[in-house]
Design brief:
By secondary structure, the protein is α/β, with parallel strands linked by helices. It has helices at residues 14-22, 77-88, 95-106, 113-128, 146-157, 174-180, 208-214, 218-223, and strands at residues 2-6, 25-28, 42-47, 50-55, 58-59, 70-71, 134-136, 161-164, 184-186. The chain has one domain (2-223).
């Protein structure tokens, strides 16, 4: 069983969904420290001017795990997000059915960021047709050291291999994985080019960008660059 692991992200990009699609099981690493100004509470959508951040405002303490981070309810972030999507994707072919799904999620009274992220991710996977099951690292007893934590997750779920992202070279101790008898495979993600609402094509947007423009062909597009 091939396992992939990553922090829960908000409206994640295509590389994140590609990683999930390549795995037999995906673990949401919600028990590690929240990092401000990264991807855990924000992502980018395409606009005529380039891109725009959509951000979920949060209340957090330094060192707080992702699973405990609360959403700041003093700003109406839901309205801002939906207005931005409605405006910038006004001509998107699949605008209405996709935004209807997101609106249904936004109507729920979210308190914790991780819960929102998981709900949005499950919805995205359903829309793309990706069947990989998800589990939370916070349900497991794990070591603190980063590589040992990953190995601990792999052992807990019975992984026979680990799928690592390109950034893993910066923090993983590959010799420890070798010693643990868990082969490591590196994700080779090549961003697909598809018809966006604006030109020129801009990679790295939230995966909803592809969904809004390509609808039921989104999974085919995601997989199209694999060798």
């Amino acid at each position: 069983m091939k396992v992939a692991i990553h922090q829960p992200q908000f409206l994640p990009w295509l590389g994140y969904l590609d990683k999930i699609d390549r795995a037999d099981l995906f673990i949401l690493l919600d028990s590690v420290q929240f990092k401000k100004n990264e991807w855990q509470n924000r992502n980018r959508i395409r606009t005529a001017q380039g891109s725009q951040w959509v951000t979920v405002p949060v209340l957090h303490d330094f060192g707080q795990p992702i699973k405990d981070v609360r959403i700041n309810q003093t700003t109406d972030w839901r309205v801002k997000h939906l207005k931005a999507l409605e405006m910038h994707y006004a001509q998107a072919a699949h605008r209405e059915p996709v935004l209807a799904g997101l609106r249904a999620i936004y109507k729920q009274p979210w308190d914790r960021l991780a819960d929102l992220n998981v709900a949005v991710l499950r919805w995205l996977l359903g829309e793309f047709g990706i069947k990989t099951p998800l589990r939370l690292s916070s349900d497991m007893q794990l070591p603190e050291e980063p590589t040992e934590r990953l190995i601990g997750i792999c052992r807990t779920v019975g992984a026979t291999s680990y799928l690592a992202g390109a950034g893993a070279r910066d923090y993983m101790d590959f010799k420890k994985f070798e010693a643990a008898g868990i082969p490591v495979e590196m994700q080779d993600f090549r961003h697909p080019v598809y018809r966006q609402c604006y030109k020129p094509f801009l990679p790295g947007m939230a995966a909803i960008d592809l969904l809004l423009t390509c609808g039921g062909q989104s999974l085919h597009s995601l997989r199209s660059t694999r060798s």
